[in-house]
Amino acid sequence: MKKNFPKDSSQQNTMGERWADKVAKFGGSWTFIILFKMMLIIWIVLNSWVIFRQPFDPYPYIFLNLVLSCIAALQAPIIMMSQNRQEAKDRIQAEKDYHINLKAEREIQELKVLLKEVLANQQNEFRNSKNPPIS
Asked: How does 94-112 read in b/e, with b if 16+ C-beta sit within 10 Å?
């Protein structure tokens, strides 16, 4: 039972797929959350303090909403692509695990048969030693 599975699927990914994985990994990290929150606070503070001069995005921060919408619109499909690839990797790993488990089960069944044979031989030897044949 030999199956040829891909050794490392990360080598088969295109540059875009590798970038999508990196963006998804960064987008789901605490570093991203902290940096993004800091950027929002800076944006709001700058536009609130400069409100008396000429703010580039006055309250209610419509341009900020546009930027956030664009980021979400681009980030969501990238994360979904990364999740789909991870699902495919998981499916391959599950198939490998299944075949390994199947092989282990077959070997265990073979061992059970051999153990039964050994036990039967030992019982026969024990019976024969208790009751030697009469000649």
From this structure: eeeeeeeeeeeeeeeeeee
